[in-house]
Structure formats: C-alpha cells, structure tokens
Design goal:
With 200 residues, the chain is mainly beta. The chain is built from 1 helix and 11 strands, in the order H-E-E-E-E-E-E-E-E-E-E-E.
Length: 200
C-alpha cells in the first residue's frame, strides 16, 4: 500500500510539472514600502525594498515564487513627547530586514495573478532617530528587538511582458518584534508596490 501511494504521488508530481509550459525563471525586484508597527502611537513611514526571486511553475495555473529581499521598514511616532524636562519630536524607527517570502501564485489570466504565502524575516539593523530639545540624535536599538520575524503576505500582480511586471503585496506580521514589550505587542505591517524583471 505504501509503495502504491508513493507511486501515485510521484505520478501526480510528474503530471503537474509536465503541464507546465516553462521552466524556472530568475529575476530581480525593487520598489517602495509603506510600513508601520502596530500600536495607537505610531504611523506609517516610507522605505524601499530590493532583491532576487525565482518563479517555478508547477502547472499552467499555479507557480511558487521564493524571494530574498532587503526591506527597509519601521514606523514614525504619531505624537511628540515631554519627559523629565526633555521635548522629544520627530521620532522614527527604521528596521532593516532580509526577508524570505515564499509565495504561491494563481494565474487567473496569462497576465494577472494572485498570490499568498509566508514570509520569514531576519533583522540586520535597527536605528532610532529623533530630535531632543531641538538637537537630532540617532542610535542603534537592535539589541532590544527580536532577530526573527514571521508574517503572512497576500498580493496581486500584472505582467506587461514575459520579462516585466508590477506587483502589490501586503504583509502582516504575526510575531512580536520587541524582546521586552512590557505587556504590549508590537508587530510589523508592510505594504509594497514595485516592479519585477525576469531575465528570460
């Protein structure tokens, strides 16, 4: 019975790849982020992303697209603060991640697709910047943040040609990014808009 089941799985896998009209396609992507961190006292900030990808068709309708992307994320403070005689303004948190999303794409038409999948993020840099009594300060606070981040992304895209396309994606973080949040949970949110370019 086990041998029959294994043979069936192999046959299904072979059929799926046989139905695919193309092999893997390698490419690059880049664009802008509108990111934030959950909480009433934060608002969105702009950043950018850039990276590499490979699109692997598994049938005419579906493909899998792993990516490796550098992504500049974070948030701005919504309000100014007064603390112990100090006036703190223009607070901004910048988080730099190496993200590895793995998207499953459904080709609704030859040009238009929908996608969804997990994203694994690895924090490589964190900078807090703001003005204290009118003087600008910037410092690393990476040690107070968790290195690993996990999220789920959904998106859509359009292919202008076989090589060039546009993609929009929203990723909601599912893990707390702060090591000691004092009972509060802080999660990443990120909306991306950019272009994809394939080499063949």
């Amino acid at each position: 019975m086990k041998k029959q089941l294994l043979s069936l799985c192999i046959a299904i896998g072979t059929m799926a790849f046989a139905q695919s009209t193309e092999g893997p396609k390698f490419g690059i992507k880049a664009g802008g982020n509108l990111s934030s961190i959950t909480g009433d006292d934060t608002q969105s900030k702009f950043g950018f992303y850039a990276g590499a990808l490979v699109n692997v068709p598994i049938s005419e309708a579906f493909s899998i697209q792993p990516e490796v992307v550098y992504s500049q994320q974070g948030a701005k403070a919504k309000d100014d603060y007064n603390f112990a005689g100090y006036t703190i303004t223009n607070m901004k948190q910048t988080l730099s991640y190496i993200n590895v999303p793995v998207m499953v794409q459904y080709n609704a038409t030859p040009e238009f697709y929908l996608e969804a999948g997990p994203e694994f993020g690895f924090l490589v840099n964190a900078q807090a910047k703001g003005d204290i009594n009118g003087n600008s300060y910037e410092a690393s606070n990476k040690d107070s943040l968790k290195t690993f981040n996990f999220g789920l992304g959904i998106g859509l895209g359009y292919k202008f040609t076989s090589k060039l396309g546009i993609n929009a994606r929203y990723t909601a973080g599912l893990t707390d990014i702060v090591k000691n949040g004092g009972g509060e949970t802080s999660k990443n949110t990120n909306f991306q808009l950019g272009i994809n370019y394939f080499f063949k």
